Amino acid sequence: MNELDALVDSARQGFEQAATPADLENAKAVFLGKSGRITELMKGLASLSIDEKKARGAVINQAKQAIEAALNARRQALADAELDAQLKAEALDVTLAGRQPGQGGLHPVSLTLERIEGIFGSMGFDVAQGPEIESDWFNFTALNTPEDHPARSMHDTFYVEGGTATAPNLLRTHTSPMQIRHAVQHVNAHRALLDAGETMPEIRVIAPGRTYRVDSDATHSPMFHQCEGLWIGANVSFKDLKVVFTDFCRTFFESDDLVLRFRPSFFPFTEPSAEIDIQFQSGPLAGRWLEVAGSGQVHPNVVRNMGLDPEKYIGFAFGMGPDRLTMLRYGVNDLRLFFDGDIRFLSQFQ
Ligand code: PHE
Question: Which atom of ligand 1 is nearest to the CA of 211?
Fold first, then answer.
């Protein structure tokens, strides 16, 4: 093997041993660099005759080209290997089962509200929504609860900016302000009929929503839900309220033998007033009286504040607690579970 073949051979070996592109560039410098072996051989030509130069130069050039070819081949091989490794690292196993997106669902109290709306809807009740920031007038005064009324102290709440000293704004303590708001709207919509001395269509509405009080323990939350009911007409009686509410409770709890008790009570905006208790005849709660709503005949002063003549219009109102109904229906014993947002609790209702 002559000297040049040996050089090409050792270049091939050097390139082969280079494991990275940087190693390869270092190996290249040894043979093809400015002071590399080929350059040195070229310098040696200077001392030769013209003919010798031609012959020797051609052979050196061949060796140089062979070394360059070996270099390029190794470059390509390293690049291919790198790409291979990258493709392997980024490989997707398309046969793997996909990750399921989390399935959302309605909050148990929302499920109850939907149920309440469905049942009362089937009995001809509209559904109304009202503001959670309420004026003193709608929350108290219009509901026959003047400023010095002791009943106000049971409705301690959060006062918010925007009102005046005598008419503050507050977070509503119950959904009863919706009695006035909805009735006034209804009366205005039928103003022409009323002015003509005719009877307006009955008001039959429920108003579910959030309510607030300064109260917090296992059965009270500063934010809770209520659902108001109002039924006003020329000829509505306590009997109607009893029938409707009994029907509602039996449908809601899917229990035909559930019994109701109307227990005398007091609310400033109803007279007479009654607390509504229910009793299951079977199941874990059987035999106990459970309070589910306040109710009563709408007070004449309230009927007047609705813009109606209490001599002509009479009606009934009730206010129930969807949170409590949810607890009873599902056997939940701590109200706070509804507002903790713990997915382990909430996912049980999907
Ligand atoms: N608003 C009353 C409460 O929060 C409940 C109620 C509503 C009572 C309607 C009578 C009529 O306690």
Answer: 4
The answer, yes or no, to whether any atom of ligand 1 lies below 6 A from the CB of 225, is: no
Atom nearest to 155 CA in ligand 1: 4
Give the residue among 3, 11, 1, 2 at the shortest CA–CA distance from 41: 3
CA 176 from centre of chain? 28
The neighbour count for residue 130, using CB atoms within 10 Å, is 18
Q: Residue of the nearest CA to atom 7 in ligand 1?
A: 319
**Closest CA relative to residue 201, chosen from 179, 173, 233, 227:** 233
| 277 lies in the same domain as 129 | yes
The answer to whether position 98 is within a domain reads: no
Q: What is the pTM of this model?
A: 0.72
Three-state DSSP at 69 gives helix
- CA 169, CA 135: separation in Å to the nearest integer? 5
Are 21 and 157 part of one and the same domain?
A: no
Express each pLDDT in 227-260 by its tens digit: 999 999 999 999 999 999 999 999 999 999 999 9
**Residue 100 maps to a domain:** no
Helix (H, G, I), strand (E, B) or coil at 265: strand
Nearest CA to 245 out of 211, 178, 291 is that of 291
